[in-house]
Design a protein that fits this description.
The chain has 133 residues and is an alpha/beta fold. The protein is 46% helix and 14% strand. It has a single domain, classed as 3-Layer(aba) Sandwich (Rossmann fold), CATH 3.40.50. Helix 1 packs across helix 4 and helix 5 packs across helix 6. The longest helix has 13 residues.
């Protein structure tokens, strides 16, 4: 199965692995699963570090890339199909995060199951998102 992990899951894997939900951790650890993270998440982390909204306890983007490599997590680009899908997804009143919406669009357009801690993303299941919280 193809899974895309969200930004928080990567941060927790890097800084506080005990915070990764058990179900998500089991999916990530299962060698039968194809686990990916989008460059959108790395970009979001880089922005938040730069504006001092995120402290990764001294870790840098290069360290996160290495962690992905060690965990067999593929880093994937945002495809044009996801950009087109982004424009087609209805805006939700209770959720407007553009980074999350890019991940949602990528999951819908490229048939990923999204692994996230954010229950609000379930709002997009009616739009075609496969989601595990």
């Amino acid at each position: 199965m193809k899974y895309l992990i969200d930004t928080h899951i990567l941060i927790w894997l890097a800084v506080s692995p005990e915070k990764v939900p058990k179900k998500a951790f089991e999916i990530i650890e299962n060698p039968m699963n194809d686990i990916s993270i989008s460059t959108v998440s790395l970009w979001e982390i880089a922005i938040k570090i730069a504006i001092k909204k995120l402290d990764l306890q001294g870790l840098k983007i290069d360290d996160l890339v290495q962690i992905c490599d060690e965990q067999n997590i593929k880093i994937v680009q945002l495809p044009v199909s996801a950009v087109k899908q982004y424009c087609a997804i209805p805006m939700k009143e209770k959720h407007r995060d553009p980074f999350d919406r890019a991940l949602i669009a990528m999951c819908i357009s490229d048939d990923y199951v999204l692994l996230s801690h954010d229950g609000k993303l379930g709002l997009y299941e009616q739009d075609g998102l496969a989601f595990i919280s």
